[in-house]
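pipeline stage [seq->struct] | target=DUF4352 domain-containing protein | organism=Salipaludibacillus agaradhaerens | residues=230
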Amino acid sequence: MKKSITILSLSTLLLLVACAETEGKNESENNNNQNNSEAVAQVNKHESNSQTAMNEDNEEEQEQEVVLDASTANVGDMYETNNGTFTMVTKADDFSPLKSGPITIEIDQLIIASGEIDKDAVRYSELESNEVDIIQLDYQLENRANEDVTFDMSRVTISTNTGKQLSTDYNLTTNLPNELMAGTFHSGSLIFLIEDESLEEVESIRIKIQGPRNSNFDTIGDDIDEELEF
């Protein structure tokens, strides 16, 4: 009888040990599964955050790549010209007309910009790089006389408040008139290259333009000498 009880007790003990091992194994598997689930969740969260960041960067890059016309662009916008693509740094557009004899100059806007010019523009210039900083003056001319006049926009000179004197860049400026027929209009842009200059320090320019002359080369208007502020 005692022997049977001992065998039974031993069997019971082995059963309890087996159950304990099974519970421990199940608990270990549950912990492993939980840890794996947490690890997967962390990876998914990281991938989701990375994807969100990439999407935001792509959206920001697409916004920066939007190219406008200079007349509709604002500070920080990219705009396009015949010679390249620029980012507008500073802009001013509230100016009184400049007048000399029968000539009136309406300044649409005065811009400081930084950007890249086309390879062809570099090829036909003395520039070493296609990355440039510019001052751009968009204008409209009107000759109110009943005769043709000489008014040379290709010889415009400016100086900045930082002490730089600049002449019109012929490689970047196109369609510059030197004569206006009676009663006609003309619009265009003057481009001046700024080198070794902090653009944020340029707060104003002084502009000089020779006065108009008639067919006999007589002066029929004063030279223009004005300061324009950004």
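stage status: PASS
auto-comment: Residues 1-8 have pLDDT under 50 and may be disordered. The radius of gyration is 38 Å.
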